[in-house]
Design a protein that fits this description.
Strand content: 15-25%
Shape: globular
Largest sheet: 5 strands, antiparallel
Mean pLDDT: 95
Strand order of the largest sheet: 1-2-3-5-4
Radius of gyration: 20 Å
Number of helices: 10
Distance between the termini: 38 Å
Number of strands: 10
Order of helices and strands: HEEEHEEEHHHHEEEEHHHH
């Protein structure tokens, strides 16, 4: 997708990057359209395919939580590889020195397959893939911590402190763009009202971005394996956040089939009561605020992403505030 954050490299620069891993015979360079923040290249070299992921240039004005976000991606790839059974690409090389180019980048394994969002399933295959994704979320959520927040930012002792810190960061981002957000201020006032509920949350690894566009379907022995990519927006937070990506249009209390499947594979059962409904509303509100803020930094009103964010954030705000104002 077109975005102001994309960092476009020429072929000579890409060749210099690959010399870092002693790859000198490059046979093909293909810039991919996937992704909305980083730039992705598929590289054919030495009879092998690689993926080169390049962060925005150092002078790009990004959101506060996006500072050093590529380091966060590497952290979460490593975390999932070591502590879960979730398949992720192998990372071959990282460079955060900004000496070859004025940006972070890394080289990773090219996964053969198609994005889940572009894969044609039979009804049975789709059910199996969705169940596999829910099982993987159970696996991810089993990684616990006693802190909350983004690993590339400040960590806090409880979800309320982390949550309000993140919201205030987005308020600052929106102000830097010359705009204001009454919705963001409203989120803070609701957070104060429900402080006890937000404080009483168990911290775990949360992806926050496990949409079908960030899952690759890889065929192995006539079976489909789901491989996760782009975990840079993961955080230590409330596991309810990930249920938005499973069914964004349905309130958490009505996601019965998803929750039943989730509970079938975890010892930490999710029982949805009043507190969970409120916590889920705060997750929706934060997602709305992220989309609201990022449109000013990545897109213009001429971009599809601008209007998608406008419409989606409006919907998430409305659904969240419908619960929180009661």
């Amino acid at each position: 997708m077109k975005s102001k954050s994309k960092n476009h490299l020429d072929n000579l620069t890409i060749k210099k990057i690959f010399e870092k891993i002693s790859v000198t015979e490059i046979n093909g360079i293909n810039k991919l359209s996937e992704g909305e923040y980083n730039t992705l290249y598929e590289i054919a070299a030495d009879g092998k395919s690689y993926m080169l992921k390049v962060a925005p240039s150092c002078d790009f004005k990004h959101l506060t939580y996006e500072n050093d976000m590529m380091k966060s991606e590497i952290f979460w790839y490593d975390k999932m590889r070591k502590e879960t059974q979730i398949p992720v690409p192998e990372v071959y090389f990282t460079d955060f020195t900004k000496t070859v180019i004025p940006a972070d980048y890394f080289i990773m394994e090219k996964i053969d397959g198609a994005l889940k969002s572009k894969t044609r399933f039979t009804k049975e295959e789709k059910e199996q893939a969705n169940t596999q994704l829910i099982k993987q979320l159970v696996d991810l959520h089993s990684i616990r911590n006693d802190k909350f927040g983004y690993v590339q930012g400040t960590l806090f002792d409880n979800w309320y402190d982390a949550y309000t810190h993140i919201v205030k960061g987005h308020i600052g981002d929106i102000k830097r763009a010359g705009k204001k957000s009454k919705n963001a201020e409203l989120i803070l006032s609701y957070a104060e009202r429900y402080k006890d509920i937000l404080t009483d949350v168990q911290s775990c690894a949360v992806n926050t971005d496990c949409w079908d566009t960030n899952i690759i379907c890889k065929k192995e022995n006539s079976e489909t394996k789901l491989v996760w990519i782009d975990p840079e927006r993961s955080m230590w937070g409330d596991r309810l956040f990930d249920f938005i990506c499973l069914d964004p249009m349905t309130p958490i209390e009505n996601q019965k089939d998803i929750i039943n499947t989730y509970n079938a594979y975890t010892d930490d059962k999710l029982i949805v009561g009043k507190n969970e409904v409120i916590r889920y509303a705060f997750c929706l509100a934060l997602l709305a605020l992220v989309m609201d803020a990022e449109k000013h930094y990545r897109y213009t009103p001429l971009h599809y992403g601008w209007w998608r964010n406008v419409i989606s954030s409006k919907m998430f705000y409305e659904n969240a505030f419908k619960v929180l104002k009661k």
